[in-house]
Design brief:
Rossmann fold, carboxy-lyase activity, 7 helices, globular, alpha/beta, 6 strands
Length: about 200
Amino acid sequence: MNENKKVFTVAITGASGAVYGVRLAQMLLQNHHFVHFLVSEAGWQVFREELLLDTSDREACLEELFSKSYQENLKIHDLRDFKAPVASGSYRTDGMAVIPCSMGTLSKIANGNSGNLLERAADVILKEKQKLILVPRETPLNGIHLENMLKAEKNGAHIIPAMPGFYHLPETKDDLINFVVGKVLDALNVHHSLFTRWGSGK
């Protein structure tokens, strides 16, 4: 087995910005890592509305998003499947990203209220002191949202809002997407070249 191969969980909720989660999973797979992939019901709706995908056949939808050459390293889980490996703290991963993270999912995670596999997997990551990246995508934010982010951060989550930078002079929508995804990859300690780093001169 490749010693550099890592195991990650990528979860997509119903917040706007499903493309962030898809791009993250694509980058991890291209780097030959293993990905447990979770999508909420609202997340599937965003696939249809924002990515313009036919989600009536979810398997075909995922085949369209992920190259067949990488699919052996991709495991899709039903959110009702609590027998999945990521539901247990005895199963070791190298981190989890909820990208994008809706305010409803944030609230569930921050308050330890696990009603499905996605929320349970995040709870497991926190209790095992592993890396949990939350990428909230909402604006404006009310006090409840901010308090939940603070509560999650105090309990070990890493908050990376979907706020693209502009110092790398983005020219396309992909540049903006890649900036946010690159920040998540940095937090997961995964090498990438998705954006030009400040002071790199490249």
